[in-house]
Amino acid sequence: MASFAKSPVVLMLICFYFYFLPALVAQSPMSLEDNILPIFSSSTQYFGQSDPEIPRNKVNKTNFGLHEEYTWDSLLDALEPDEKLFFLQRHGEGWHNVARRLINASYSDWQCHWSIEDGKGDIEWFDAELTPRGHDQIAALSTKIRTNDGFPMPDKFYVSPLRRTLQTWQGTWSKMTDDTAVIKENAREKFGIDTESKRHSKSFIKKHFPDFEFESDFSDDDTSWENDKREKAQHCRFRAASLLEDIFEEAKDDEQVISIVLHSGIIYCLLNVVQHRTFVVPTGGMIPVVIKMEDTYKKYPLNDAFSDFDSWCPANLLTKVGASKEEVLNDAYIDYFDSEEDHAEKKKLFEAFIS
């Protein structure tokens, strides 16, 4: 038996089983763990928004941030085989973006009561549609795209299933292409508790937006949204990585330009996943990013993926045993702001609320 154990073949098998196989599994997309996904990166070379050396408020957005030494053609020519140019487009202003102001609700009243309602009076924010201003924002962006010299038309279009993003895609792209967009569940906003993040059924979307296609496993009912559970950044980043993996696998090598119409929360998660600096995209805005899918994989943690209503409603948060001001600020999620100044004002108001 001892001589058998010392056999070179046996020793090789033991080494492979205990040392090499686990490493291979960890690097493989076929791992039994669903949260093993590719690593993604983004280039800092082409756009001011992506360049950490340029202050965010100094980015020249005249040509969507493209540096003057590049043209769209030269950028595409410079892309590596595993890189693609993504246009991450945020929907135009929706009724959920302005509802709290229009109904004159305090932040606490909005979070703890009104955000979980479908609407008030003539204002509906459940799966919110675009406001008139939102339609105007999208018309202006569409004009900017059409009049931009050499703008690269996307080879593939993707869109969130929520009404405001479907309307945004129609207002932006429908007159510029005969292609349509594929509805992707993972392109949706951070979801749960508030009704603006709940989508309509697939049959409703088919009836009211018949020109869109659906990804193959799109469910009829919204099986993700729950009224007592809120998606946190950790799960959102996992979704963002899953979305990117799907797109890279679906797109052919010569399909270099990808458009996704989506939301501020998932845009922040995507930028985080591709190791891009945080950059505010206002309603009706769009940010171009060159993204690379690496040939290595990692585990996207999901041990802190969701929070509950106590983390959503500040009045409840303040009653949590041992909850500090810092925890309250970190747990509360407010995403209806369009600029860094708005985010600073939000934090100032919220700190005043809990002081």
From TrEMBL:
Which PANTHER family does the record cross-reference, listed alphabetically? BROAD-SPECIFICITY PHOSPHATASE YOR283W-RELATED, HISTIDINE PHOSPHATASE FAMILY PROTEIN-RELATED
Keyword annotations? Signal
Q: Which InterPro entries match?
A: His_Pase_superF_clade-1, His_PPase_superfam, PGM_Phosphatase
- Coiled-coil segments on the chain, per record: none
- Signal sequence bounds: 1-26
Q: What is this protein called?
A: Uncharacterized protein
Note the CDD domains from the entry: HP_PGM_like
Q: Which organism is it from?
A: Lodderomyces beijingensis
Which Pfam families has this protein been placed in?
His_Phos_1
Where does the source fall among the domains of life? Eukaryota
